[in-house]
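It is worth pausing here to work through a concrete case rather than discussing structure prediction in the abstract. The textbook approach is simple: state the sequence, then state the predicted structure, then interpret. We follow exactly that order.
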Amino acid sequence: MNPCREELPHVYPFRFVERTVEKRGPAEGRVRALVTVNGRRTEAGSFLPPLTLVEVVAQAALLLEGGDPGIGRSGFLAGVSDFTFDRTPESGDVLEVEVRIAGVLGSIVRFEGVVTDGEGRLVASGAVTVKKGAAA
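Step two, the predicted structure:
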């Protein structure tokens, strides 16, 4: 499945995920991201900054959610927790992001994500919390 532009409101250079690899349910599955050689997000062969992987997990969750307007277009990233960074991806790496909904409380949704490289090595993992609805 290839995402439509409407499914993810982000555009270059702020769009990091490329396509859905496998969808198991709402916001659960795998998404592919590509660290482009000579891309704006790379410098000296590294993905910059490592905290960008938090955004990769958030975009993967949104893409798997189907671009729910309540989450993606009028919601906002409300929290980041338990993130660990095991290695910095390099230009040319293909990243796989496993995402699942970890909990829902009213208009707050917590997503857990694991980022691995094309060889299955752990790159990063952690959780993002999204608040549905417009920012106050």
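Step three, interpretation. Residues 48 and 112 are 21 Å apart (CA to CA). The domain at 5-131 is CATH 3.10.129.10 (Thiol Ester Dehydrase; Chain A).
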